[in-house]
Amino acid sequence: MSGFANILLEEKRRVLAEFTEVKAEFASRGWFAGTGGNLSMRIGPYSPDEFFFAVTASGKDKTRSTPEDFLFVDQDGNPCEATALKPSAETSLHREIYRLTGAGAIFHIHSVFNNIVSEWFWERRAVPIQGVELIKAFNIWDEDALIEVPILTNYADVPRIVPEITERLNPALPGLLIRKHGICAWGKDAFEAKKHLEAFEFLFEYVYRWELLNGTKK
Ligand SMILES: CSCCC(=O)C(=O)COP(=O)(O)O
Ligand SMILES: [Zn+2]
């Protein structure tokens, strides 16, 4: 029997219910413009070689709730059950982040603020943010802490982004930006991944407004 078949139906239902709730909440914030964005939640035991996760189906209107919003895939991105649904075109990004971090949930969204700051700081390949209280949401408590959110190349061929994740992911910072595309934020479970995503989006808006006020570039 495959590892996926061993996971209780009850657990699969629980994950899908939580997933549905998070997706609706993000939709209400306008985080899925034009079908952009994708979400995933891991289920069952984890090892870097074998794990399973629920992921949003590709190309769907994510502001709607239907019985065909998610499917379960394995560590290689292959569906665990017979389905006509296609996993997100960006599943390879989720797979690599799970492999490197063992996270419990990964949320990818496009926003105007995350797109603008990723371009504004592209030459530096990172968005610097210093001394803002909400950095504590990442469990970073240093006085006047400086974080650098990595910015990756937005290759049209999505799997080409994966080696940049491998190279640039900072285990102490649960997020990565893709240039003029969006952010992937993660956490040990959906609650933490949502907290991290909200904190990043707050900080990107702060940086955007601060840069605008100052008219400077670091
Ligand atoms: C319509 S935006 C281009 C694709 C994208 O960046 C995205 O986040 C959504 O892709 P998916 O295959 O997950 O629907
Ligand atoms: Zn995207």
From TrEMBL:
<feature type="binding site">
    <location>
        <position position="108"/>
    </location>
    <ligand>
        <name>Zn(2+)</name>
    </ligand>
</feature>
<dbReference type="GO" id="GO:0008270">
    <property type="term" value="F:zinc ion binding"/>
</dbReference>
<comment type="function">
    <text>Catalyzes the dehydration of methylthioribulose-1-phosphate (MTRu-1-P) into 2,3-diketo-5-methylthiopentyl-1-phosphate (DK-MTP-1-P).</text>
</comment>
<comment type="similarity">
    <text>Belongs to the aldolase class II family. MtnB subfamily.</text>
</comment>
<dbReference type="InterPro" id="IPR036409">
    <property type="entry name" value="Aldolase_II/adducin_N_sf"/>
</dbReference>
<comment type="pathway">
    <text>Amino-acid biosynthesis; L-methionine biosynthesis via salvage pathway; L-methionine from S-methyl-5-thio-alpha-D-ribose 1-phosphate: step 2/6.</text>
</comment>
<feature type="domain" description="Class II aldolase/adducin N-terminal">
    <location>
        <begin position="17"/>
        <end position="208"/>
    </location>
</feature>
<feature type="binding site">
    <location>
        <position position="110"/>
    </location>
    <ligand>
        <name>Zn(2+)</name>
    </ligand>
</feature>
<protein>
    <recommendedName>
        <fullName>Methylthioribulose-1-phosphate dehydratase</fullName>
        <ecNumber>4.2.1.109</ecNumber>
    </recommendedName>
</protein>
<dbReference type="GO" id="GO:0005737">
    <property type="term" value="C:cytoplasm"/>
</dbReference>
<keyword id="KW-0456">Lyase</keyword>
<keyword id="KW-0486">Methionine biosynthesis</keyword>
<dbReference type="Pfam" id="PF00596">
    <property type="entry name" value="Aldolase_II"/>
</dbReference>
<dbReference type="InterPro" id="IPR001303">
    <property type="entry name" value="Aldolase_II/adducin_N"/>
</dbReference>
<keyword id="KW-0862">Zinc</keyword>
<keyword id="KW-0028">Amino-acid biosynthesis</keyword>
<dbReference type="InterPro" id="IPR017714">
    <property type="entry name" value="MethylthioRu-1-P_deHdtase_MtnB"/>
</dbReference>
<dbReference type="GO" id="GO:0046570">
    <property type="term" value="F:methylthioribulose 1-phosphate dehydratase activity"/>
</dbReference>
<dbReference type="GO" id="GO:0019509">
    <property type="term" value="P:L-methionine salvage from methylthioadenosine"/>
</dbReference>
<keyword id="KW-0479">Metal-binding</keyword>
